[in-house]
Protein backbone atom coordinates (compact mmCIF):
# COMPACT_ATOMS: atom_id res chain seq x y z
CA UNK A 1 0.00 0.00 0.00
CA UNK A 2 1.22 3.52 -0.79
CA UNK A 3 2.19 5.29 2.38
CA UNK A 4 -0.44 8.06 2.26
CA UNK A 5 0.61 9.77 5.44
CA UNK A 6 4.35 9.45 5.14
CA UNK A 7 4.91 13.21 4.92
CA UNK A 8 2.80 13.94 8.01
CA UNK A 9 4.48 11.19 10.02
CA UNK A 10 7.98 12.33 8.98
CA UNK A 11 7.22 15.93 9.97
CA UNK A 12 5.87 14.83 13.38
CA UNK A 13 8.88 12.58 13.99
CA UNK A 14 11.23 15.45 13.10
CA UNK A 15 9.34 17.79 15.41
CA UNK A 16 9.36 15.27 18.26
CA UNK A 17 13.12 14.86 17.92
CA UNK A 18 13.66 18.61 18.37
CA UNK A 19 12.81 17.80 22.00
CA UNK A 20 10.50 20.79 22.51
CA UNK A 21 7.46 18.71 23.51
CA UNK A 22 9.36 17.33 26.51
CA UNK A 23 9.47 20.45 28.68
CA UNK A 24 6.93 21.11 31.39
CA UNK A 25 6.28 24.63 30.05
CA UNK A 26 5.51 23.36 26.55
CA UNK A 27 3.06 20.74 27.82
CA UNK A 28 1.25 23.16 30.14
CA UNK A 29 1.01 25.75 27.37
CA UNK A 30 -0.48 23.11 25.04
CA UNK A 31 -3.06 22.09 27.66
CA UNK A 32 -3.92 25.77 28.23
CA UNK A 33 -4.34 26.38 24.51
CA UNK A 34 -6.56 23.32 24.15
CA UNK A 35 -8.72 24.46 27.07
CA UNK A 36 -9.15 27.93 25.56
CA UNK A 37 -9.99 26.51 22.13
CA UNK A 38 -12.65 24.17 23.51
CA UNK A 39 -14.32 27.17 25.16
CA UNK A 40 -13.96 29.25 21.99
CA UNK A 41 -15.60 26.52 19.91
CA UNK A 42 -18.22 25.59 22.52
CA UNK A 43 -21.22 26.63 20.40
CA UNK A 44 -19.83 24.82 17.30
CA UNK A 45 -19.46 21.65 19.41
CA UNK A 46 -23.11 21.88 20.51
CA UNK A 47 -24.24 22.35 16.88
CA UNK A 48 -22.14 19.42 15.65
CA UNK A 49 -23.41 17.03 18.33
CA UNK A 50 -26.97 18.10 17.62
CA UNK A 51 -26.51 17.33 13.91
CA UNK A 52 -24.65 14.05 14.46
CA UNK A 53 -26.76 12.59 17.27
CA UNK A 54 -29.53 15.05 18.19
CA UNK A 55 -27.68 15.55 21.45
CA UNK A 56 -28.94 18.45 23.60
CA UNK A 57 -26.57 21.16 24.83
CA UNK A 58 -26.93 19.96 28.42
CA UNK A 59 -26.12 16.35 27.51
CA UNK A 60 -23.24 17.55 25.31
CA UNK A 61 -21.75 19.57 28.15
CA UNK A 62 -22.26 16.74 30.65
CA UNK A 63 -20.83 13.92 28.54
CA UNK A 64 -18.44 15.60 26.11
CA UNK A 65 -17.21 19.13 26.92
CA UNK A 66 -17.35 19.15 30.73
CA UNK A 67 -15.56 15.83 31.01
CA UNK A 68 -12.72 17.08 28.74
CA UNK A 69 -12.34 20.40 30.58
CA UNK A 70 -12.29 18.59 33.92
CA UNK A 71 -9.56 16.24 32.65
CA UNK A 72 -7.43 19.17 31.43
CA UNK A 73 -7.71 20.90 34.83
CA UNK A 74 -6.69 17.67 36.58
CA UNK A 75 -3.63 17.24 34.36
CA UNK A 76 -2.58 20.87 34.80
CA UNK A 77 -2.81 20.52 38.59
CA UNK A 78 -0.69 17.37 38.78
CA UNK A 79 1.65 17.41 35.79
CA UNK A 80 4.69 18.86 37.59
CA UNK A 81 4.58 16.07 40.19
CA UNK A 82 3.99 13.34 37.59
CA UNK A 83 6.98 14.48 35.49
CA UNK A 84 9.48 14.45 38.35
CA UNK A 85 12.39 12.01 38.12
CA UNK A 86 11.69 9.41 40.79
CA UNK A 87 14.52 8.16 43.01
CA UNK A 88 14.11 4.54 44.17
CA UNK A 89 16.01 2.36 46.67
CA UNK A 90 19.26 0.68 45.61
CA UNK A 91 20.15 -2.98 45.98
CA UNK A 92 23.22 -4.16 47.86
CA UNK A 93 24.85 -5.33 44.63
CA UNK A 94 24.68 -1.78 43.27
CA UNK A 95 26.61 -0.18 46.13
CA UNK A 96 27.29 2.77 46.17
CA UNK A 97 25.19 3.72 43.16
CA UNK A 98 21.73 5.33 42.92
CA UNK A 99 18.56 4.43 40.99
CA UNK A 100 16.11 6.64 39.13
CA UNK A 101 12.96 6.32 37.03
CA UNK A 102 12.69 8.86 34.24
CA UNK A 103 9.33 9.45 32.56
CA UNK A 104 9.71 9.98 28.84
CA UNK A 105 7.16 10.37 26.05
CA UNK A 106 6.78 7.45 23.65
CA UNK A 107 7.06 9.78 20.66
CA UNK A 108 4.44 9.69 17.96
CA UNK A 109 0.95 8.62 19.09
CA UNK A 110 -2.01 7.54 16.95
CA UNK A 111 -5.49 7.95 18.44
CA UNK A 112 -8.39 6.24 16.62
CA UNK A 113 -11.83 7.13 17.96
CA UNK A 114 -15.45 5.99 17.54
CA UNK A 115 -18.59 8.04 16.87
CA UNK A 116 -20.64 7.54 20.04
CA UNK A 117 -18.96 10.23 22.18
CA UNK A 118 -17.10 11.76 19.27
CA UNK A 119 -15.61 14.72 21.13
CA UNK A 120 -14.87 13.16 24.51
CA UNK A 121 -13.26 10.00 23.05
CA UNK A 122 -10.85 12.00 20.87
CA UNK A 123 -10.05 14.62 23.48
CA UNK A 124 -9.51 12.51 26.61
CA UNK A 125 -6.69 10.39 25.18
CA UNK A 126 -5.30 13.51 23.48
CA UNK A 127 -5.01 15.27 26.85
CA UNK A 128 -2.98 12.33 28.20
CA UNK A 129 -0.76 12.23 25.12
CA UNK A 130 -0.10 15.99 25.41
CA UNK A 131 0.73 15.92 29.10
CA UNK A 132 3.11 13.01 28.51
CA UNK A 133 4.96 15.07 25.85
CA UNK A 134 4.08 13.21 22.64
CA UNK A 135 3.10 14.37 19.17
CA UNK A 136 -0.31 13.11 18.04
CA UNK A 137 -2.33 12.09 15.00
CA UNK A 138 -6.07 11.79 15.68
CA UNK A 139 -8.44 9.78 13.47
CA UNK A 140 -12.03 10.58 14.51
CA UNK A 141 -14.99 8.60 13.23
CA UNK A 142 -16.57 9.07 9.81
CA UNK A 143 -20.00 8.37 11.36
CA UNK A 144 -19.96 11.58 13.40
CA UNK A 145 -18.79 13.78 10.54
CA UNK A 146 -19.87 17.16 11.97
CA UNK A 147 -18.07 16.55 15.25
CA UNK A 148 -15.00 15.29 13.38
CA UNK A 149 -14.88 18.55 11.38
CA UNK A 150 -15.12 20.67 14.53
CA UNK A 151 -12.36 18.62 16.17
CA UNK A 152 -10.21 19.13 13.05
CA UNK A 153 -10.90 22.87 13.17
CA UNK A 154 -10.09 23.13 16.88
CA UNK A 155 -6.82 21.25 16.44
CA UNK A 156 -5.64 23.00 13.25
CA UNK A 157 -6.39 26.43 14.70
CA UNK A 158 -4.56 25.63 17.96
CA UNK A 159 -1.56 23.48 17.07
CA UNK A 160 0.94 23.10 14.22
CA UNK A 161 0.32 19.93 12.22
CA UNK A 162 3.81 18.61 13.00
CA UNK A 163 2.71 18.58 16.67
CA UNK A 164 -0.97 17.53 16.58
CA UNK A 165 -2.96 16.72 13.49
CA UNK A 166 -6.41 15.35 12.63
CA UNK A 167 -6.91 12.93 9.74
CA UNK A 168 -10.57 12.76 8.76
CA UNK A 169 -11.80 9.74 6.86
CA UNK A 170 -12.99 6.20 7.25
CA UNK A 171 -11.58 2.67 7.02
CA UNK A 172 -9.16 3.49 4.15
CA UNK A 173 -7.57 6.38 6.00
CA UNK A 174 -7.48 4.38 9.23
CA UNK A 175 -5.86 1.44 7.44
CA UNK A 176 -3.30 3.72 5.78
CA UNK A 177 -2.43 5.27 9.14
CA UNK A 178 -1.95 1.81 10.63
CA UNK A 179 0.63 1.12 7.90
CA UNK A 180 2.85 3.77 9.48
CA UNK A 181 5.26 3.15 12.31
CA UNK A 182 3.80 4.92 15.36
CA UNK A 183 5.34 4.73 18.83
CA UNK A 184 1.98 4.15 20.53
CA UNK A 185 -1.55 3.41 19.32
CA UNK A 186 -4.65 4.24 21.36
CA UNK A 187 -7.78 2.69 19.88
CA UNK A 188 -11.37 3.07 21.06
CA UNK A 189 -14.04 1.14 19.19
CA UNK A 190 -15.46 -2.30 18.55
CA UNK A 191 -13.80 -5.57 19.55
CA UNK A 192 -13.86 -6.63 15.89
CA UNK A 193 -11.86 -3.60 14.69
CA UNK A 194 -9.71 -3.81 17.83
CA UNK A 195 -8.40 -7.15 16.51
CA UNK A 196 -7.45 -5.51 13.18
CA UNK A 197 -5.68 -2.66 14.98
CA UNK A 198 -3.77 -5.08 17.20
CA UNK A 199 -2.74 -7.10 14.13
CA UNK A 200 -1.40 -3.94 12.47
CA UNK A 201 0.41 -2.88 15.67
CA UNK A 202 2.08 -6.28 15.94
CA UNK A 203 3.97 -5.74 12.66
CA UNK A 204 6.07 -3.03 14.29
CA UNK A 205 5.61 -4.33 17.86
CA UNK A 206 3.91 -1.02 18.65
CA UNK A 207 2.51 -0.86 22.20
CA UNK A 208 -1.19 -0.11 22.32
CA UNK A 209 -4.29 0.42 24.40
CA UNK A 210 -7.56 -1.10 23.26
CA UNK A 211 -10.72 0.48 24.70
CA UNK A 212 -13.44 -1.86 23.43
CA UNK A 213 -17.02 -2.81 24.27
CA UNK A 214 -19.05 -5.83 25.29
CA UNK A 215 -22.18 -6.83 27.16
CA UNK A 216 -22.19 -5.02 30.53
CA UNK A 217 -24.69 -6.57 32.98
CA UNK A 218 -26.71 -4.98 35.77
CA UNK A 219 -27.54 -7.24 38.71
CA UNK A 220 -30.36 -6.20 41.04
CA UNK A 221 -31.24 -8.23 44.12
CA UNK A 222 -34.30 -7.97 46.36
CA UNK A 223 -32.45 -5.95 49.02
CA UNK A 224 -31.98 -3.03 46.58
CA UNK A 225 -33.84 0.26 46.57
CA UNK A 226 -35.89 -0.65 43.51
CA UNK A 227 -37.19 2.77 42.49
CA UNK A 228 -33.69 4.25 42.68
CA UNK A 229 -32.22 1.30 40.78
CA UNK A 230 -34.90 1.63 38.07
CA UNK A 231 -34.27 5.38 37.73
CA UNK A 232 -30.52 4.91 37.43
CA UNK A 233 -30.73 2.01 34.98
CA UNK A 234 -33.20 4.05 32.88
CA UNK A 235 -30.74 6.95 32.90
CA UNK A 236 -27.90 4.61 31.82
CA UNK A 237 -30.00 3.36 28.90
CA UNK A 238 -31.34 6.76 27.88
CA UNK A 239 -28.17 8.81 27.94
CA UNK A 240 -26.85 8.85 24.35
CA UNK A 241 -29.79 6.48 23.61
CA UNK A 242 -27.83 3.60 25.10
CA UNK A 243 -25.00 4.11 22.58
CA UNK A 244 -22.49 4.09 25.40
CA UNK A 245 -19.69 1.56 25.81
CA UNK A 246 -20.47 1.24 29.53
CA UNK A 247 -24.28 1.34 29.20
CA UNK A 248 -26.19 -1.40 31.04
CA UNK A 249 -26.59 -4.03 28.31
CA UNK A 250 -28.87 -6.53 30.03
CA UNK A 251 -30.53 -6.85 33.40
CA UNK A 252 -30.35 -9.78 35.80
CA UNK A 253 -33.02 -9.29 38.44
CA UNK A 254 -34.25 -11.38 41.35
CA UNK A 255 -37.59 -12.89 40.34
CA UNK A 256 -39.56 -11.49 43.28
CA UNK A 257 -38.92 -7.82 42.34
CA UNK A 258 -39.20 -7.97 38.55
CA UNK A 259 -42.73 -6.54 38.31
CA UNK A 260 -41.93 -3.72 40.70
CA UNK A 261 -38.83 -2.84 38.67
CA UNK A 262 -40.78 -2.66 35.41
CA UNK A 263 -43.32 -0.28 36.96
CA UNK A 264 -40.60 1.91 38.43
CA UNK A 265 -38.65 1.94 35.15
CA UNK A 266 -41.77 3.13 33.37
CA UNK A 267 -42.31 5.87 35.96
CA UNK A 268 -38.69 7.02 35.60
CA UNK A 269 -38.78 7.14 31.79
CA UNK A 270 -42.08 9.00 31.79
CA UNK A 271 -40.68 11.51 34.26
CA UNK A 272 -37.61 12.05 32.06
CA UNK A 273 -39.62 12.38 28.83
CA UNK A 274 -43.22 13.20 29.76
CA UNK A 275 -45.71 12.19 27.08
CA UNK A 276 -44.42 12.13 23.53
CA UNK A 277 -40.92 10.74 23.80
CA UNK A 278 -40.09 11.13 20.12
CA UNK A 279 -40.43 14.92 20.36
CA UNK A 280 -38.06 15.26 23.26
CA UNK A 281 -34.38 15.69 23.04
CA UNK A 282 -33.43 12.05 23.30
CA UNK A 283 -30.36 11.20 21.28
CA UNK A 284 -31.12 9.44 17.98
CA UNK A 285 -29.56 6.26 16.65
CA UNK A 286 -26.49 7.32 14.73
CA UNK A 287 -27.38 5.96 11.27
CA UNK A 288 -29.77 3.69 9.36
CA UNK A 289 -27.48 0.67 9.63
CA UNK A 290 -27.50 0.75 13.44
CA UNK A 291 -31.16 1.78 13.56
CA UNK A 292 -32.22 -1.22 11.43
CA UNK A 293 -29.98 -3.53 13.47
CA UNK A 294 -31.72 -2.37 16.67
CA UNK A 295 -35.19 -2.60 15.11
CA UNK A 296 -34.42 -6.22 14.27
CA UNK A 297 -33.44 -6.90 17.87
CA UNK A 298 -36.91 -5.70 18.93
CA UNK A 299 -38.25 -8.90 17.36
CA UNK A 300 -36.63 -10.96 20.13
CA UNK A 301 -38.64 -11.86 23.25
CA UNK A 302 -41.69 -9.94 24.52
CA UNK A 303 -41.77 -6.17 24.85
CA UNK A 304 -43.09 -5.20 28.29
CA UNK A 305 -42.43 -1.47 28.03
CA UNK A 306 -41.70 0.91 25.14
CA UNK A 307 -40.97 -0.57 21.73
CA UNK A 308 -42.13 2.35 19.56
CA UNK A 309 -39.89 3.68 16.82
CA UNK A 310 -39.85 6.35 14.17
CA UNK A 311 -38.13 5.59 10.86
CA UNK A 312 -37.91 9.25 9.80
CA UNK A 313 -35.94 10.19 12.87
CA UNK A 314 -33.94 7.05 13.71
CA UNK A 315 -35.72 7.15 17.05
CA UNK A 316 -36.30 4.13 19.28
CA UNK A 317 -38.03 4.31 22.64
CA UNK A 318 -36.39 3.02 25.80
CA UNK A 319 -37.64 -0.56 25.74
CA UNK A 320 -37.79 -3.46 28.21
CA UNK A 321 -37.83 -6.96 26.73
CA UNK A 322 -38.65 -10.21 28.55
CA UNK A 323 -38.34 -13.88 27.64
CA UNK A 324 -35.04 -13.76 25.79
CA UNK A 325 -32.64 -16.71 25.81
CA UNK A 326 -28.91 -17.02 25.29
CA UNK A 327 -29.74 -17.96 21.70
CA UNK A 328 -31.68 -14.73 21.03
CA UNK A 329 -29.88 -12.31 18.71
CA UNK A 330 -30.14 -9.58 21.35
CA UNK A 331 -28.00 -11.69 23.72
CA UNK A 332 -25.41 -12.50 21.07
CA UNK A 333 -24.04 -8.99 20.50
CA UNK A 334 -23.46 -5.73 22.34
CA UNK A 335 -26.85 -3.96 22.06
CA UNK A 336 -25.56 -0.36 21.89
CA UNK A 337 -29.05 1.14 21.92
CA UNK A 338 -32.01 1.85 24.25
CA UNK A 339 -33.19 -1.78 24.55
CA UNK A 340 -32.87 -3.66 27.83
CA UNK A 341 -33.50 -7.41 28.05
CA UNK A 342 -34.62 -8.61 31.49
CA UNK A 343 -33.54 -12.01 32.79
CA UNK A 344 -34.74 -13.22 36.19
CA UNK A 345 -32.82 -15.35 38.68
CA UNK A 346 -33.70 -16.98 41.98
CA UNK A 347 -30.31 -16.96 43.72
CA UNK A 348 -27.17 -14.90 43.28
CA UNK A 349 -25.08 -17.90 42.10
CA UNK A 350 -27.41 -18.20 39.11
CA UNK A 351 -26.79 -14.55 38.22
CA UNK A 352 -23.01 -15.03 38.49
CA UNK A 353 -23.18 -18.14 36.31
CA UNK A 354 -25.18 -16.20 33.73
CA UNK A 355 -22.58 -13.42 33.54
CA UNK A 356 -19.93 -16.09 32.90
CA UNK A 357 -21.69 -17.07 29.65
CA UNK A 358 -20.17 -13.97 28.11
CA UNK A 359 -16.69 -12.57 27.55
CA UNK A 360 -15.39 -10.31 30.31
CA UNK A 361 -17.44 -7.10 30.04
CA UNK A 362 -16.24 -3.50 30.22
CA UNK A 363 -18.57 -2.79 33.17
CA UNK A 364 -20.79 -4.46 35.70
CA UNK A 365 -23.34 -2.77 37.94
CA UNK A 366 -24.76 -4.12 41.19
CA UNK A 367 -27.83 -2.78 42.98
CA UNK A 368 -27.98 -4.33 46.42
CA UNK A 369 -27.80 -3.61 50.15
CA UNK A 370 -26.43 -7.09 50.85
CA UNK A 371 -22.72 -6.96 51.59
CA UNK A 372 -22.54 -10.70 51.07
CA UNK A 373 -24.03 -10.55 47.59
CA UNK A 374 -21.92 -7.56 46.58
CA UNK A 375 -18.72 -9.29 47.75
CA UNK A 376 -19.65 -12.50 46.02
CA UNK A 377 -20.26 -10.77 42.69
CA UNK A 378 -17.08 -8.69 42.94
CA UNK A 379 -14.99 -11.77 43.76
CA UNK A 380 -16.50 -14.04 41.14
CA UNK A 381 -17.05 -11.83 38.09
CA UNK A 382 -14.22 -10.38 36.05
CA UNK A 383 -14.92 -7.04 34.33
CA UNK A 384 -13.24 -3.70 33.53
CA UNK A 385 -14.87 -1.57 36.25
CA UNK A 386 -18.28 -0.63 37.51
CA UNK A 387 -20.52 0.72 40.26
CA UNK A 388 -22.42 -0.45 43.31
CA UNK A 389 -25.87 1.17 43.44
CA UNK A 390 -25.20 3.35 40.41
CA UNK A 391 -24.34 3.23 36.72
CA UNK A 392 -21.75 5.00 34.52
CA UNK A 393 -20.42 7.14 37.38
CA UNK A 394 -17.10 5.26 37.50
CA UNK A 395 -16.21 7.38 34.48
CA UNK A 396 -16.49 10.70 36.22
CA UNK A 397 -13.52 10.44 38.58
CA UNK A 398 -10.03 10.99 37.10
CA UNK A 399 -8.64 9.07 40.11
CA UNK A 400 -10.25 5.87 38.79
CA UNK A 401 -8.43 4.25 35.83
CA UNK A 402 -10.86 3.38 33.04
CA UNK A 403 -10.44 0.36 30.78
CA UNK A 404 -11.51 -3.16 29.94
CA UNK A 405 -10.24 -6.68 30.37
CA UNK A 406 -10.05 -9.54 27.86
CA UNK A 407 -12.31 -8.87 24.91
CA UNK A 408 -13.44 -5.51 26.36
CA UNK A 409 -9.88 -4.28 25.90
CA UNK A 410 -6.65 -3.76 27.78
CA UNK A 411 -4.78 -0.82 29.20
CA UNK A 412 -6.56 2.06 30.88
CA UNK A 413 -6.61 5.84 31.08
CA UNK A 414 -8.10 8.97 32.72
CA UNK A 415 -6.16 11.21 35.10
CA UNK A 416 -2.72 9.92 36.15
CA UNK A 417 -3.35 6.65 34.31
CA UNK A 418 -3.49 8.62 31.03
CA UNK A 419 -0.09 10.10 31.82
CA UNK A 420 1.24 6.59 32.55
CA UNK A 421 -0.30 5.17 29.39
CA UNK A 422 1.54 7.56 27.07
CA UNK A 423 4.77 7.53 29.09
CA UNK A 424 7.68 5.13 28.95
CA UNK A 425 9.25 4.73 32.38
CA UNK A 426 12.98 4.51 31.81
CA UNK A 427 14.93 2.85 34.64
CA UNK A 428 18.42 4.22 35.19
CA UNK A 429 21.11 2.99 37.55
CA UNK A 430 23.83 5.57 38.18
CA UNK A 431 27.08 4.25 39.59
CA UNK A 432 29.62 6.50 41.25
CA UNK A 433 32.84 6.60 39.27
CA UNK A 434 35.03 5.92 42.29
CA UNK A 435 34.30 2.46 43.59
CA UNK A 436 34.01 -0.79 41.69
CA UNK A 437 32.89 -3.80 43.73
CA UNK A 438 35.11 -6.74 42.57
CA UNK A 439 32.55 -9.42 43.45
CA UNK A 440 30.92 -9.78 40.01
CA UNK A 441 34.15 -10.35 38.10
CA UNK A 442 35.81 -13.75 37.50
CA UNK A 443 37.62 -15.71 38.73
CA UNK A 444 34.75 -16.97 40.92
CA UNK A 445 36.36 -18.51 44.03
CA UNK A 446 34.45 -20.48 46.69
CA UNK A 447 34.52 -17.41 48.96
CA UNK A 448 33.10 -15.21 46.24
CA UNK A 449 30.26 -17.69 45.68
CA UNK A 450 29.45 -17.65 49.41
CA UNK A 451 29.33 -13.85 49.39
CA UNK A 452 27.19 -13.73 46.22
CA UNK A 453 24.79 -16.22 47.87
CA UNK A 454 24.55 -13.94 50.91
CA UNK A 455 23.70 -10.91 48.77
CA UNK A 456 21.34 -12.60 46.29
CA UNK A 457 18.84 -14.47 48.41
P1 LIG B 1 -15.61 0.85 15.15
O1 LIG B 1 -14.68 -0.16 15.70
O2 LIG B 1 -16.46 0.49 13.99
O3 LIG B 1 -14.80 2.17 14.69
C1 LIG B 1 -13.87 2.83 15.51
C2 LIG B 1 -12.83 3.54 14.65
O4 LIG B 1 -12.13 2.58 13.89
C3 LIG B 1 -13.41 4.55 13.66
O5 LIG B 1 -12.58 5.70 13.65
C4 LIG B 1 -13.34 3.82 12.32
O6 LIG B 1 -13.14 4.68 11.23
C5 LIG B 1 -12.14 2.91 12.51
N1 LIG B 1 -12.24 1.67 11.73
C6 LIG B 1 -13.40 1.01 11.39
N2 LIG B 1 -13.10 -0.10 10.70
C7 LIG B 1 -11.75 -0.16 10.60
C8 LIG B 1 -10.83 -1.07 9.99
N3 LIG B 1 -11.26 -2.14 9.34
N4 LIG B 1 -9.50 -0.81 10.09
C9 LIG B 1 -9.07 0.27 10.75
N5 LIG B 1 -9.88 1.18 11.33
C10 LIG B 1 -11.20 0.98 11.26
O7 LIG B 1 -16.48 1.33 16.38
P2 LIG B 1 -17.71 2.32 16.41
O8 LIG B 1 -18.88 1.70 15.76
O9 LIG B 1 -17.29 3.67 15.94
O10 LIG B 1 -17.96 2.42 18.01
C11 LIG B 1 -18.74 1.52 18.71
C12 LIG B 1 -17.90 0.53 19.48
O11 LIG B 1 -16.95 1.18 20.26
C13 LIG B 1 -18.74 -0.27 20.48
O12 LIG B 1 -18.34 -1.62 20.46
C14 LIG B 1 -18.40 0.36 21.82
O13 LIG B 1 -18.56 -0.49 22.93
C15 LIG B 1 -16.97 0.71 21.61
N6 LIG B 1 -16.59 1.81 22.51
C16 LIG B 1 -15.72 1.55 23.51
C17 LIG B 1 -15.38 2.58 24.39
C18 LIG B 1 -14.43 2.37 25.53
O14 LIG B 1 -14.00 3.36 26.10
N7 LIG B 1 -14.08 1.15 25.89
C19 LIG B 1 -15.93 3.85 24.21
C20 LIG B 1 -16.80 4.05 23.17
C21 LIG B 1 -17.13 3.03 22.30
Automatic annotation (TrEMBL):
GO BP annotations, alphabetical order: aldehyde metabolic process
Residue span(s) of domain Aldehyde dehydrogenase: 22-428
Gene Ontology CC: cytoplasm
Origin: domain of life: Bacteria
Pfam families in the cross-refs: Aldedh (PF00171)
Gene3D superfamilies: Aldehyde Dehydrogenase, Chain A, domain 1, Aldehyde Dehydrogenase, Chain A, domain 2
Transmembrane regions listed in the UniProt entry: none
Entry-linked PANTHER family: ALDEHYDE DEHYDROGENASE (PTHR43570), ALDEHYDE DEHYDROGENASE TYPE III, ISOFORM Q (PTHR43570:SF16)
Protein name (record): Aldehyde dehydrogenase
Amino acid sequence: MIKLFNKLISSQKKFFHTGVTRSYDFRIKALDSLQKSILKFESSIYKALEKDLNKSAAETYLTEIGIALNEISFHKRHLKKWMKIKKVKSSLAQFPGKNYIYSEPYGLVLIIAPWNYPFHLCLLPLIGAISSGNTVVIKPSEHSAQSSSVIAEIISSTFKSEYISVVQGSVDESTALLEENFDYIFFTGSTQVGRIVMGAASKNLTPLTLELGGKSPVIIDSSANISLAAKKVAFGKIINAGQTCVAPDYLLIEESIEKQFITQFETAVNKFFFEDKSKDAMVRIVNKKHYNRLKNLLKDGDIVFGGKFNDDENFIEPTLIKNVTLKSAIMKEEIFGPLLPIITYSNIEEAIEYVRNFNKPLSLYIFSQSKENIDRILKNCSFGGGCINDVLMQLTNPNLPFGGIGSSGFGSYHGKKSFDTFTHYKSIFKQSGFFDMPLRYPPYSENKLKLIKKILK
